[in-house]
From TrEMBL:
<dbReference type="InterPro" id="IPR029066">
    <property type="entry name" value="PLP-binding_barrel"/>
</dbReference>
<keyword id="KW-0663">Pyridoxal phosphate</keyword>
<dbReference type="Pfam" id="PF01168">
    <property type="entry name" value="Ala_racemase_N"/>
</dbReference>
<dbReference type="InterPro" id="IPR001608">
    <property type="entry name" value="Ala_racemase_N"/>
</dbReference>
<dbReference type="GO" id="GO:0030170">
    <property type="term" value="F:pyridoxal phosphate binding"/>
</dbReference>
<comment type="similarity">
    <text>Belongs to the pyridoxal phosphate-binding protein YggS/PROSC family.</text>
</comment>
<dbReference type="InterPro" id="IPR011078">
    <property type="entry name" value="PyrdxlP_homeostasis"/>
</dbReference>
<protein>
    <recommendedName>
        <fullName>Pyridoxal phosphate homeostasis protein</fullName>
    </recommendedName>
</protein>
<feature type="domain" description="Alanine racemase N-terminal">
    <location>
        <begin position="22"/>
        <end position="231"/>
    </location>
</feature>
<comment type="function">
    <text>Pyridoxal 5'-phosphate (PLP)-binding protein, which is involved in PLP homeostasis.</text>
</comment>
<feature type="modified residue" description="N6-(pyridoxal phosphate)lysine">
    <location>
        <position position="39"/>
    </location>
</feature>
């Protein structure tokens, strides 16, 4: 299957998932942004995806993203979807339009400091570890709104929503309750009406589970394998 064919299928699946949303989500925007996850794929593959209409690229390693961005420049949006350590914040702020993976006050403060120095306002999402998995990054759901509140006081950071990664299930239906709770948390975050924020994005869903994610209210999905095929490591 070509990248273009895969992409068409993914976009079709997203559209039909939007139409299967429950009535409680009827007032939510029907626009879903697709981030094509290109980790371990080369620039030629990314260029093929861009030619087929991809507008946003997701990478989880800063070094790898920086190399690709040197070639591709700003013809696409760059999204950081992997864990961010404080010592990598400078590069991240220089490169990324949206950072999905902020999970502590410490890293948010460092983003604020660097963004201020660079004269940038950095858009970020809070990563929430909804399933409380030891193996995953993300803040515990019970602490997410407190973190949001403290981030809203930072001048050079703009909180734009939240992101979660579901555990890997054989059947994506198993992720549905978790996605539903995550959407609930997202709505609470919106309803807080925090100054300085623009709570717009709910980033939830990968190749294995994006259809359920969108059905449960995701408006940002991160898809690699479903577009590019299996990654070679
Ligand atoms: C790799 C990755 C994805 C994409 O995974 P696929 O299963 O290939 O779609 C999405 N989100 C994050 C955080 C990732 O690391």
């Amino acid at each position: 299957m070509s990248i273009r064919t895969n992409l068409t299928q993914v976009i079709e699946n997203i559209h039909s998932a939007v139409h299967k949303r429950s009535k409680t989500l009827i007032n939510e925007s029907k626009n879903v942004k697709l981030v094509a996850v290109t980790k371990n794929h080369d620039v030629a593959a990314i260029q093929e995806a861009v030619a087929a209409g991809v507008l946003a690229i997701g990478e989880n390693r800063i070094q790898e993203a920086a190399k690709k961005a040197q070639i591709l420049q700003k013809q696409v949006e760059w999204h950081l979807i992997g864990h961010l350590q404080t010592n990598k914040v400078r590069q991240a702020v220089q490169l990324f339009d949206l950072i999905h993976s902020v999970d502590s006050k410490k890293v948010a403060l460092e983003i604020d400091r660097i963004a201020g120095a660079l004269g940038k306002r950095q858009d970020i999402l809070i990563q929430v570890n909804m399933a409380n998995e030891d193996t995953k990054f993300g803040i515990a759901s019970k602490d997410a709104l407190t973190l949001a509140k403290s981030i809203s006081n930072l001048e050079h950071v703009r909180l734009c929503g939240a992101m979660t990664i579901a555990p890997f299930y054989d059947n994506a239906e198993q992720a549905r309750p978790l996605f539903r709770n995550m959407c609930q948390l997202f709505m609470e975050l919106k309803d807080m009406n925090l100054a300085n924020t623009n709570i717009e994005w709910l980033s939830m869903g990968m190749t294995n589970d994006y259809i359920v994610g969108v059905e449960e209210g995701a408006n940002l999905v991160r898809i690699g394998t479903g577009i590019f095929g299996q990654r070679q490591y």
